[in-house]
Automatic annotation (TrEMBL):
CDD domains: AAT_like, WHTH_GntR. This is GntR family transcriptional regulator. In the C-terminal section; belongs to the class-I pyridoxal-phosphate-dependent aminotransferase family. Residues 15-83 form the HTH gntR-type domain. It comes from Psychromonas marina. The lineage of its organism: Bacteria, Pseudomonadati, Pseudomonadota, Gammaproteobacteria, Alteromonadales. Keywords: DNA-binding, Pyridoxal phosphate, Transcription, Transcription regulation. InterPro entries: Aminotransferase_I/II_large, HTH_trans_reg/aminotransferase, PyrdxlP-dep_Trfase, PyrdxlP-dep_Trfase_major, Tscrpt_reg_HTH_GntR, WH-like_DNA-bd_sf, WH_DNA-bd_sf.
Length: 488
C-alpha cells in the first residue's frame, strides 16, 4: 500500500476539508503517483498523515468514488479505478512530462472579426444607430421585470413555444396593426434582427443563390447572407435609394450566369447608411419586380418610430398581396441593443420553417424579458417612452443641422440633406472622409465613413461620413463636432 505525497490545505471559509483532500488525491492520481487498480492508503493511515479524522478521509474517498476516480472493495480498502482514461498513458509517465501539443482547429467558416462592434468608450461616439441609453426609464421598467418574476406564467417558462411568449406576440401584433398598418402576419420573436437574418439565410440561401442589396448597407446582414455561401449583388442606389431598373437588370444577369437572386434586402424607411426614404413609386416598382421573379424581400425596419417630418411611410409589408415580404424590426433602438429582442412579421407559408430552424439555435428568447416587455407595452409605458425619445431625437437632429450649417459656412462641410427621420445624418465633406475619421479616432471620437458601408469598397468617393445624433446630448454634439472640425 502506497503512501501518498499530498498536502491537503483547506481554507475553511471557502471549501470543506474533505473536498480539499479529495482534490489532492485526484491530483495525485492524475499525475501518476498511483496508477490504475493500485491500492490507496487506508482511511486511518491517511488521517494520521494529514492530521485529521478518519471520517473526513472517508468522506473524501466517497466523493472520489462518486466521481469514478476510485472504487472500494469490502474488507480490502480503496483502489484507483481500473478504467481511468488517463492511466494507460500515465503508467510510466507522470502528467507533467506529457508534451504540450497545441490543438490545431480546422475552421470550416470564415470568422472574420471585422463586424464586431466595440463597447469601447469614446469621448464622443457618433455611431449612427446608437440610442441614448441614459434616457431609458430603467426604474419604471424594473417594476415590469419584477412582475415577470413575481407573477410568472409557469407554463411559458419551460421549453416550447419557440415563436415567442404569447402575451408579447399579442402586444407586437396590436402595435404593428395600429402604428405600422401591418396585419395578417405571423410574429416570431428573435434574439434581435441579427438572429432573424441568420435564420433566413440558413433556410432560404445556398452557394448557388445570391442576395441583392443596396450598394451601401449594413455589413452584419451581409455576413449572415454570405455565411450560407450565397453571394451579395450590389444594386446601384441614388439620392432616393435602390434603383428598380438596376435591380431588374441584375436579376436577369444573375439568372444568365446561373446564380439567381433569391432575396432582396432593403432598409426602405431610413436607408442604411444614407438615411433617405425610398419613395412609394420605387417601393411599388421593386415589389412588382420581386413578385414577377418570385424573389422574397427582407424589409429591415430598424428605427421606424424615429420619424420627424410626418408619419413614417407604411412599410412595404403592409401591402403585400403575394406574402413575399419578410418584415424585421428590433427593440435595439427603442430600448438598447443589449436587450437582444427583435421580431419578424411574416407570411404563414414561411413561419413554420423559421420557427423549426430557430429551435436548432436556441429554443426561444429569454421569457422573463419578453414578459417584462409585454407588460411594459400593455401598460402604455412603451409608447409613452417612444414619444419622449422621438421628441428629444428630433431636437438633436435640428441641433445637428444648425451645427453642420455653421461648418458648411466655414467650408468644412460640403453638403447634407436633412433626414426626415432616423438617428443619423449623411454628410458630404470637402476632404477625405477616411482621413477625417482616422484623425477623429486618434482623439477618441468615433465616426463612420463611406468606405465602411460599401459592398464594393473600390466605389468609394471617400467624401461621406455618417454622424449619429440620437445618442449624444446637444452639448456633446457641439463639442464633438468642434473637435472634429477644429481648424487645422
Ligand atoms: C440596418 C440595421 N438593422 C438592424 C439593426 C439592429 O440589429 P439587432 O436587432 O440585431 O440589434 C441595426 C442596428 O444597428 C441596423 O443598423
Amino acid at each position: 500500500m502506497k503512501t501518498l505525497n499530498i498536502k491537503a490545505v483547506s481554507d475553511e471559509q471557502k471549501q470543506a476539508k474533505y473536498l480539499a483532500i479529495s482534490q489532492a488525491i485526484r491530483e495525485a492520481i492524475k499525475c501518476g503517483q498511483v496508477i490504475s487498480s493500485e491500492q490507496l492508503p487506508s482511511a486511518r493511515q491517511l488521517a494520521e498523515q494529514l492530521k485529521t479524522n478518519r471520517h473526513t478521509i472517508m468522506a473524501a474517498y466517497n466523493e472520489l468514488i462518486a466521481q469514478g476516480w476510485i472504487t472500494s472493495k469490502q474488507r480490502k480498502g480503496y483502489f484507483v479505478a481500473a478504467d481511468l482514461p488517463v492511466n494507460s498513458s500515465l503508467r510510466n509517465k507522470p502528467m507533467e512530462t506529457l508534451p504540450a501539443q497545441p490543438f490545431r482547429w480546422k475552421f470550416t467558416k470564415n470568422t472574420d472579426p471585422s463586424t464586431i462592434q466595440t463597447t469601447a468608450s469614446y469621448r464622443y461616439n457618433f455611431a449612427g444607430g446608437t440610442p441614448d441609453i441614459s434616457l431609458f426609464p430603467f426604474h419604471e421598467f424594473k417594476s415590469y421585470v419584477g412582475d415577470a418574476f413575481s407573477r410568472p406564467n409557469i407554463n411559458e417558462l419551460n421549453y416550447g413555444n419557440t415563436a415567442g411568449y404569447t402575451p408579447l406576440i399579442t402586444q407586437v401584433t396590436q402595435y404593428l396593426r395600429r402604428a405600422r398598418s401591418i396585419t395578417n402576419r405571423e410574429i416570431v420573436i428573435t434574439n434581435g434582427s441579427q438572429e432573424a437574418l441568420y435564420i433566413l439565410s440558413q433556410i432560404l440561401l445556398s452557394p448557388i443563390l445570391s442576395v441583392a442589396t443596396e450598394a451601401m448597407g449594413y455589413a452584419p446582414a451581409w455576413r449572415c447572407f454570405t455565411s450560407s455561401g450565397a453571394s451579395i449583388i450590389s444594386i446601384k442606389q441614388d439620392q432616393q435609394g435602390m434603383i428598380p431598373e438596376a435591380l431588374e437588370q441584375a436579376i436577369e444577369r444573375q439568372i444568365q450566369i446561373g446564380q439567381p437572386i433569391a432575396l432582396v434586402y432593403l432598409t426602405p424607411l431610413h436607408q442604411y447608411p444614407t438615411t433617405v426614404t425610398l419613395p412609394v413609386s420605387r417601393r411599388h416598382a421593386i415589389y412588382r419586380i420581386a413578385s414577377k421573379h418570385n424573389i422574397a424581400i427582407i424589409e429591415d425596419d430598424y428605427d421606424h418610430e424615429y420619424h420627424y417630418r410626418c408619419q413614417p411611410l407604411a412599410p412595404i409589408a403592409s401591402d403585400d398581396p403575394s406574402g413575399l415580404v419578410i418584415y424585421l424590426s428590433t427593440f435595439s433602438k427603442v430600448m438598447f441593443p443589449g436587450v437582444r429582442i427583435g421580431f419578424m412579421a411574416l407570411d404563414k407559408t414561411l413561419s413554420d420553417a423559421v420557427v423549426n430552424y430557430k429551435t436548432i439555435i436556441n429554443h426561444k428568447v429569454s421569457v422573463p424579458m419578453q414578459d417584462a416587455i409585454a407588460r411594459w407595452m400593455q401598460a402604455g409605458a412603451f409608447e409613452r417612452y417612444l414619444r419622449k425619445a422621438t421628441k428629444i431625437y428630433h431636437q438633436r437632429r435640428d441641433f445637428m443641422v444648425q451645427q453642420l450649417t455653421h461648418y458648411q459656412q466655414l467650408g468644412r462641410v460640403k453638403s447634407f440633406t436633412i433626414p426626415d427621420g432616423g438617428m443619423a445624418m449623411w454628410v458630404e465633406l470637402n476632404e477625405s472622409a477616411e482621413l477625417l475619421a482616422k484623425t477623429a479616432l486618434s482623439d477618441a471620437i468615433f465616426i463612420q465613413q463611406e468606405g465602411q458601408f460599401l459592398v464594393d469598397k473600390t466605389q468609394s468617393k471617400d467624401r461621406f461620413i455618417r454622424l449619429g445624433f440620437a445618442g449624444l446630448s446637444t452639448q456633446d454634439i457641439a463639442s464633438g463636432l468642434k473637435c472634429i472640425f477644429k481648424a487645422r
